[in-house]
Amino acid sequence: MNILYFASLKENLKTSSENIELADNTTVKQLKTLLADKYSEHFFPDNILCAVNQEIAHDDLVINSADEVAFYPPVTGG
Q: CA 63 to CA 10: how far, in whole Å?
């Protein structure tokens, strides 16, 4: 599965993408947990935005190896 990282997340992880193998029936939430364990929960908070195949995805969405998954850090405003 191809995972894309954008904005400050890309800068902090020092990569714009990576390919990983996941078990069948993995959810977005499980992927977030896996990435938080790998990189730090700091970079994958509960409010991180995830898109699967260029559509906003919720935590319970099941993803598969052919999907493109993108993560965007939470937006702060003022």
A: 21
Average pLDDT in the chain? 93
CATH value of 2-72 in 3.10.20.30, 3.40.50.1100, 2.60.120.10, 3.30.300.20: 3.10.20.30
Residues 6+ apart with CB under 8 A from 4: 16, 17, 68, 69, 70, 71
SS3 call for 42: helix
- Report the candidate in 22, 19, 18 with the shortest Cα–Cα distance to residue 34: 22
